[in-house]
Each structure stands twice: as C-alpha cells, then as structure tokens.
User: Which sequence fits this backbone?
C-alpha cells in the first residue's frame, strides 16, 4: 500500500529545515511530524530552544514558528509496512530545492542516516548545506542527546 507523507511545515521566515525520512505510523495517526511519544525529537528541540516540551500538535507548531524551524521529509510517498526506514519501498522524493528557493532557509539538518542518504542520492548539490544528525527514533539506542542539542542550538544561533 502506498502512503503519503505530510506537506512541509514552513513559514515565510523559516531559516532552519529539519528533514526526516518518512512519517511513522504514530505520526500518520496523529497527523503531524514525530508523533511517536517515544521519539526524542520534541524533547531535543525543546531543550535546544530552552522551551517546554510541546504536548499537542498546536504546541509543536508554535515551537517551530517561534524558532523559525521548518520540517519536512525526504520521502513524500512510499510503500511501507510499519515505521522502519529499512521498509521504505518505491520512494517518491520531495522537491527540496524548490522549497529552498522559496524560503530563506540557510541550514538543513537530516534526522537520521536514511534521510541523509536519500537526500544526497537525489539532491547531491545540497551536501555542503546539510548537517547529518543521528536519528531521534526510539530504535536508535546510541543517540548522543547533547550533540544533537548543541548542533541545533548552534544552527539556530547562526540563523
């Protein structure tokens, strides 16, 4: 079965784009990015921005708006069973260069190896503008939380 991802969450003043691979089952059920409560994404973004951890979709969007952060996934549609990146089949890739041409985004972060690998396979010209960070997924037991937070904090300061 083919599943569709989300539209980019982006504002006219977005300066940082965080790219995931494809929404998990829980995210698709919630209707917004990083909906699995076990995923550490929102805790890391909140810590990096000195904000409380958002609980609702509206709070998540408010946090992103306040810090000029855009979210999207490299894969906008695919066949997948479950939520594991290794199970993505026949991916349809996002037109990230078109998004970058439209908004003042200065920095790109990929959340996980699959997002980075697919981004560079289909958009190799973005390599110099992209910082790969380890996946915030609960499946990634080796996540270095402070490295993620420090990288995000630095990019937001530069923006």
Assistant:
């Amino acid at each position: 079965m083919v599943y569709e991802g989300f539209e980019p969450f982006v504002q006219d003043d977005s300066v940082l784009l965080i790219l995931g691979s494809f929404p998990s089952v829980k995210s698709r059920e919630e209707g917004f990015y990083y909906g699995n409560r076990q995923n550490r994404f929102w805790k890391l973004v909140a810590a990096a921005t000195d904000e409380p951890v958002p609980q609702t979709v509206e709070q998540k969007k408010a946090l992103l708006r306040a810090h000029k952060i855009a979210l999207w996934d490299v894969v906008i549609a695919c066949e997948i069973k479950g939520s594991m990146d290794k199970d993505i089949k026949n991916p349809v890739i996002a037109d990230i260069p078109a998004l970058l041409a439209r908004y003042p985004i200065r920095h790109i972060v990929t959340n996980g190896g699959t997002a980075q690998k697919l981004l560079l396979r289909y958009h190799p010209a973005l390599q110099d503008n992209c910082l790969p960070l380890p996946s915030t997924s609960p499946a990634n037991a080796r996540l270095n939380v402070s490295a993620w937070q420090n990288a995000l904090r630095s990019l937001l300061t530069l923006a």
Remarks:
- The beta strands are 2-4, 16-20, 69-73, 75-79, 89-93, 107-111, 130-133.
- The chain has a mean pLDDT of 94.
- The radius of gyration is 14 Å.
